[in-house]
Specification:
Six copies of one chain form a homohexamer.
Chain A lengths: L39 E6 L14 H9 L14 H4 L2 E6 L7 H18 L2 E6 L5 H12 L3 E5 L19 H7 L9 E5 L8 H7 L3 E4 L3 H17 L4 E6 L21 H9 L6 E7 L10 H21 L1
Parallel strand pairs in A: 1-2, 1-3, 3-8, 4-5, 4-7, 5-6, 7-8
Helix pairs in contact in A: 1-9, 3-4, 4-5, 7-8, 8-9
Chain lengths: ~325, ~325, ~325, ~325, ~325, ~325
Amino acid sequence: MSERKTPPVEPVSGTIMPRYAGPSTYCRLPELRDVPYCDVAILGIPFDSGTSYRPGARFGPQAIRQASRHLRYNFHPAYSTEPYRAFQVADAGDVPCNPFSIDEAIEQIESAASNLLEDIETLVSIGGDHTIAVPLLRAMHRRHGPVALVHFDAHLDTWDTYFGAPYTHGTPFRRAAEEGLFDDQHSMHVGIRGPLYSSEDLQQDEELGFKVIHCDELNEMGPDHVARRIRERVGDVPLYLSIDIDVLDPAHAPGTGTPEIAGLSSRELVNILRGLKGLKIVGADMVEVAPAYDHAEITALAAATIVFELINLILCGRR
Amino acid sequence: MSERKTPPVEPVSGTIMPRYAGPSTYCRLPELRDVPYCDVAILGIPFDSGTSYRPGARFGPQAIRQASRHLRYNFHPAYSTEPYRAFQVADAGDVPCNPFSIDEAIEQIESAASNLLEDIETLVSIGGDHTIAVPLLRAMHRRHGPVALVHFDAHLDTWDTYFGAPYTHGTPFRRAAEEGLFDDQHSMHVGIRGPLYSSEDLQQDEELGFKVIHCDELNEMGPDHVARRIRERVGDVPLYLSIDIDVLDPAHAPGTGTPEIAGLSSRELVNILRGLKGLKIVGADMVEVAPAYDHAEITALAAATIVFELINLILCGRR
Amino acid sequence: MSERKTPPVEPVSGTIMPRYAGPSTYCRLPELRDVPYCDVAILGIPFDSGTSYRPGARFGPQAIRQASRHLRYNFHPAYSTEPYRAFQVADAGDVPCNPFSIDEAIEQIESAASNLLEDIETLVSIGGDHTIAVPLLRAMHRRHGPVALVHFDAHLDTWDTYFGAPYTHGTPFRRAAEEGLFDDQHSMHVGIRGPLYSSEDLQQDEELGFKVIHCDELNEMGPDHVARRIRERVGDVPLYLSIDIDVLDPAHAPGTGTPEIAGLSSRELVNILRGLKGLKIVGADMVEVAPAYDHAEITALAAATIVFELINLILCGRR
Amino acid sequence: MSERKTPPVEPVSGTIMPRYAGPSTYCRLPELRDVPYCDVAILGIPFDSGTSYRPGARFGPQAIRQASRHLRYNFHPAYSTEPYRAFQVADAGDVPCNPFSIDEAIEQIESAASNLLEDIETLVSIGGDHTIAVPLLRAMHRRHGPVALVHFDAHLDTWDTYFGAPYTHGTPFRRAAEEGLFDDQHSMHVGIRGPLYSSEDLQQDEELGFKVIHCDELNEMGPDHVARRIRERVGDVPLYLSIDIDVLDPAHAPGTGTPEIAGLSSRELVNILRGLKGLKIVGADMVEVAPAYDHAEITALAAATIVFELINLILCGRR
Amino acid sequence: MSERKTPPVEPVSGTIMPRYAGPSTYCRLPELRDVPYCDVAILGIPFDSGTSYRPGARFGPQAIRQASRHLRYNFHPAYSTEPYRAFQVADAGDVPCNPFSIDEAIEQIESAASNLLEDIETLVSIGGDHTIAVPLLRAMHRRHGPVALVHFDAHLDTWDTYFGAPYTHGTPFRRAAEEGLFDDQHSMHVGIRGPLYSSEDLQQDEELGFKVIHCDELNEMGPDHVARRIRERVGDVPLYLSIDIDVLDPAHAPGTGTPEIAGLSSRELVNILRGLKGLKIVGADMVEVAPAYDHAEITALAAATIVFELINLILCGRR
Amino acid sequence: MSERKTPPVEPVSGTIMPRYAGPSTYCRLPELRDVPYCDVAILGIPFDSGTSYRPGARFGPQAIRQASRHLRYNFHPAYSTEPYRAFQVADAGDVPCNPFSIDEAIEQIESAASNLLEDIETLVSIGGDHTIAVPLLRAMHRRHGPVALVHFDAHLDTWDTYFGAPYTHGTPFRRAAEEGLFDDQHSMHVGIRGPLYSSEDLQQDEELGFKVIHCDELNEMGPDHVARRIRERVGDVPLYLSIDIDVLDPAHAPGTGTPEIAGLSSRELVNILRGLKGLKIVGADMVEVAPAYDHAEITALAAATIVFELINLILCGRR
């Protein structure tokens, strides 16, 4: 990547090419190959072979990009940002993932992410099922050391194995804990709810270093309070945000593999995220969008919008 | 039913048979014929000939069972329960209901429920349209005497007749009142909203003995307060819970026959239910799931999850 | 229109003709040609050629009418009204709009609305995309002078032009401001959210005379507070309400052209509206229902129910 | 009905009011009350309480009317007809049918049809489930005596009873045979296929006087040959055509209650019908459209188009 | 399995329990555990980890069983059979397949099928993706020796590897050929169409011993001729039929993972199958039904009906 | 464009990047900017403002590209071609079309197409509604002179004006005839069916120089015969093929704006096209895919596959 002598290449303008047309990159941003430097790369990870229930998240990256056409992105009033003019965001395309070998796919993802992180500080991945968090955290760790991990999800994703498999979409954060990929003094789950596989799930999760904000606590706390608790937990440690779209209620995100009722509304999630302004986000993933179960693109649109919130948060964390 | 010499037969384990496969019973529980004793029976009532608008709830029982595959059921942290290890729950299959004769179907349901209640204390029915509440309350009354009736619904369901028919999904609780099937000092509707057929609807309803918590009151009260009011109303009278899925907002439950906007979120409903811990529930029904109008199973999943909440509540009420 | 010597013609009764059958007018009300006088006309405006993203609102009027069959309309407890007995509401059918000429369509709409307003005081239009607000406000202005304009929407709709076109669904309120069609001391937007095309959007909007209640403010204010602020802004000026269905969250209104997550729930919107009781509403539009993206009619049902709320509000404003 | 002194009232023109707007009558034809005389009435029969599997045909009449908006109807080249200029066709609205009493509904249908047939020679009914054929044939018999009955369907619909009920959508033609409503020397089924409830079904059907053209025979015969065999069977007896949309393959008509694969394509059915030119059709029904299972209106469009073919056939049979 | 002293246990009768209710086994047949002997077992194989494009066939077995409720099965006029009275058919439930290990799943399937084939002569499997044909053919070979293999599919499924994986849904018949699991003098593909990965695909396929009837040949040959060619190829060798639902056109079977236009109609396929009467079928699979892409159950219904045709064919081959 | 010194750049290989991932160009072909020369350009035209009924074809180009991921494209056995190795095909992206001005959009399309045709001999456009045929034929005429026009469609598209508009999706071929853009001695419509707006439609169409093969003629002729008649009509004149997806039956192509039943199957259309081998095709368009009405991508897949057939035909016509 060459020197930063030019302003960022912005997305194709919606006043020239209608938003429903033109490039299929996220927000119609330039492809990575078309920019001389890059601050944030959007990386598609079309992989769902770690799914335990409804598969289809392999189509997630394309669906999120397609839904991102909806976004008016020039100026975000909640952050007072013009992100695509402030720094260079680009679409790095998809990682080729072997659908028939979880192990090989994990290597491919780790390798692709590590390569990108040599030149680019921040990576936002669009999945794909939650299995992909392991190789992403590995690559992140190589670049940034142990990160604070804040994980939005209906589920803990810290089981040990599933059908004997150590790497599935229900186990990434136990693997990550075992490998020391995140800083267990500054990490937490947000949005957890519903019944569990075992009464020991919560206890074991705590032993891995996680704090939990249960979804029901939202009833009393409100988004601002939740954000404050996250900020307190994270402190000034570099932060990795892992967001499973099923943290949203199925009414807001039907298009996912393991929906769980009684979840967050999209407004709650967006407002929690906005409360994280100032945290130094160095990476994020947005996973588990399964378009075959979506309708009217509402799940993909939620994911695409959340990714845009993340881009603004990343920008704010750098200033 | 024989003696209780063995621990309960649990559902098929999701670590052996993936949740999307295996038996089609509710939560993949044993069939009633496969257990030596039973504490709670899940009874399908595939009947929708009492429907005034969109039919299709005849497919509700199958849809709820199919959606119950999603559930991780071993441990419920909100109740600290392991219900399927604590007592025997089993699937009693479907009642054969004549689709062409409301009268005969009512007899079939009453007879089937009464037979079950000879051996089994608690019945949770999955419908089916709301017409089925009448024969269920009759069977319940035979076993338990007049019960407290708490009814979650967008509608009162206490009209007199509809097109001259005394038994429809809009009239069950007037019939039940006339027959003295519930204790009118301890009964109430929750979630009522929307315009009415007549200005007298509310007054007549009150004369039948019902109190009402209107959906709009949720704005100020919050789920905990609502639960407290229900607990106060019910006291220690044995409780029958009748839940029409349309108490939920159409965003959370599109798959129903007479949706009404401005309803409860699934999180509100679940939290109200959790606030009922300690009440002695002796029966319940979950009605009006019409799968042809559902998408991505979100309505059926809501119903299946609520049934699981009920099972945990029943267990708590027994301890 | 002749003298008011007879009581209003009411809708076809749901106790004679099942609600799913009979006339396809809004709420199965009489057609305008069938009533001797009329207080409120429901006017369909099947036009979507001003749409910038997902088209299809041309099918909105039919969808809203079809969904209005769901409504039980005799008595509205929130207002203690029996609107269809209190004054004459009738369906004025559809305006023939040229789909290939925005200019001609605008003329057709203005002409049709003006003609109706010669005899009828209040018009509730069902769209159609938001372009139609301009000709409607012109007709309204001719009859009532500058009205207070309260606009519920995710978007400001005060851009200047779009692809060089002055009249699109993103520009109506700038045109209306330029023409002085509303009273800029008493007008506001409610529900605005999401990123913008430009950092100047909000400033320019303010220069046109609008106040804004952003959607996020709902988190703290609650519907009652929002309603109070609207009432304060409007005062006793005759009010025109323009409601874009996308003010609702996509979970509640997927069937629209430019959905934006993190929106209002239908319960919030309904409760804000109820808080406007007493304002003198002289006109309203309900726009941007795009049925091809709806499912289970939930968007159209929301629109139909909101229109019914409006009818009750209009009645209350007259008493 | 008054004298025929004026040309027929034609449908609303698609060059003035776009086809997706305007009246919701079949083909946007005038309502019956708006014409001084009428040759063919289109009658909606929103009834599905005789359905044995997937209900929802109660919404069929509205769906067929809505889909009829698609039709360009001025000139039909296959018949060289301009039907709406040649004779008066009008929409007679819906029969109010009691959804809770099959018996009462049958009386309502018979009464409504008989009343219409006092003034109007030909009735085309849009259903509704197949139960409605019995009261329609009664009314037809009263006016025209025993008619030839040609029945397009995947199923024979000549069972005796179903769940003890004599009147269901599986039994109408046995009832009609018992009552002598059709001429058993000139009647037949077309399109029958699939397995049967009993090996005696075909034999008993034959005893009722029916000949059968099985769907598989289409493979060799082709539409023209089938049409010839029908014409030979019917001769010059006044003909009643009863068309169950499930005679079409589910690929062409998914929106129905009891689909059966390996059926007719819409082109085959349309071409068979065109081969019936010259037969004197005095009545017809188009039943079993269940919109909740349709998509993109393809089933309702097939039904609406077939009804238009029938109107042209009726016209040809009169000349 | 005990002696055959009793007549077969038949499915639950549709005259007692409506077809939309009751057990969820295929055709509501008894479970295998409930019959003293069994001639044909229906085995669900919920596995789709070998899918190269749209996943979801793991939900195929449940969907096919659910759709089989539609079937009237007592008597099949095309074969003059009453299969469920003539021999014992039972539902053997689902094989527990590891979704995270193709190798382990293949072992599980082979083991389950082999165990069944010790007691039961004929197995009809419902998938699941086409990967499952390998273990099924292994089990079949162990019982019956090399079978004639007739394979209905849009695709050859004889690639070597895919992403390095030897066992995927695109490679089963090359593996089967390498292992000598079928008799290459009597095997063929039917329905092949569309472009190929390589010009050598057809040549390599021929070297494995397959003959091919391309889908386009249907235009001239007709189903009877195709059936004759299959019969000639198979002769009197025991036959295994492997049917990928994508042999049907997407109009008839949208719910599948790799649809290919220009395919067979369901009537063509059914008629080809009926032409195979007399062949000795010892096993079959019906694969690649992916319900998330289905609508109105038309794909699952096609699959369920084809399985019923197979059962009748098996019966005919035994007589 | 530079010299042809290198072999064509092929699509991204499906053995490296799974087909459901990677670039969103048609068939994952290179973008035009990435190739040194180009033989056939695929051009997206996201425009639907000329639509008279269901809009949404503006999303057609993206949907066709997305569905083209399904295609295995290396070798086409019907033509014995390896097109992407034989000549350079590339995706030229989308034309920016003004959605609010038909006139400006037509200029934009004509200009974009003309620019491409300066360097590239053959253009295949993916629409978009049929309005776009006029500017495409203008550009084609400029490069190739009057072309033979073969038009596959359910409708003639030779009306004069629609709502006063000369350029709509119902009028392109009258405009083209008036401008002499095609050779009226060698042009024809194929697949025409259904009723017409006027009895003069066919006569006026003939006066413009068209021959017609009606859809019903397919019943007797078969695809080969139709292809022969087209070849005879076209002769050796350079050919432009304009294909409206609604030439297919709605069962095969539900996702379109003006569906018409009784149409072609996809197999018939594909086989007609294959019969055109040898004709010199210099341009083509594939229009009227409206994804909002599609399901399981079957319409978009049909369009994508037909475009691939066209690419092979173009190659054959050059050899």
